[in-house]
């Protein structure tokens, strides 16, 4: 595989790792916030609406940045009806075409239709309907955009990765078929 493509793949891998780190930090902050809100409410009889709504903002950040990391780690939900019957090469082809024909187009559509939704929310200065709630309601909506940009980047990384492995597989098999270079044992 040409070095520039390998560099791009590695850069995309670092971006997806960054998404996973953001997700982990946001999850930890959300857990602490939920615990703090619970303690404040049940032990001290006080609470703030904006702190409860901040939990939703952190949940949006956690979920939308965590999806691409789950894809990277192959921990995402998928139906393995076909893949368990396939060879290793067949699974690579399935992954390649799934990213190319499903992940990229669906993510593109979601980005396309979400953009005006977020822009309108921002332009209207949309806030929560709750008194003393969080302002900037466009932020959790913008997490959809952020999350699907990370998904697009991870899908591209997986296309490069599976493509590289497929090329290696077929080159290796071609060398063996030709009686390629033999190494001393």
Task: Name the descriptors.
185 residues; mainly alpha; 4 helices; 77% helix; elongated
Structure description:
With 185 residues, the chain is mainly alpha-helical. The chain is 77% helix and 0% strand. The chain has four helices and no strands. It is elongated and about 80 Å long. 19% of the residues are buried.
Q: What's the count of strands? A: 0
Anisotropy-based shape: elongated
- Our count of helices gives 4
Secondary-structure element string: HHHH
Largest sheet: none
Low-confidence spans: pLDDT under 50, at least 5 residues?
Answer: none
Which range best describes the helical content: under 10%, 10-25%, 25-40%, 40-55%, 55-70% or over 70%?
Answer: over 70%
Radius of gyration, whole Å: 22 Å
What is the terminal separation in angstroms? 27 Å
Topology of helices and strands:
Layout: H1 3-44, H2 49-72, H3 88-123, H4 138-177
Helix pairs in contact: 1-2, 1-4, 2-4, 3-4
Give a concise summary.
By secondary structure, the protein is mainly α. The protein contains four helices and no strands.
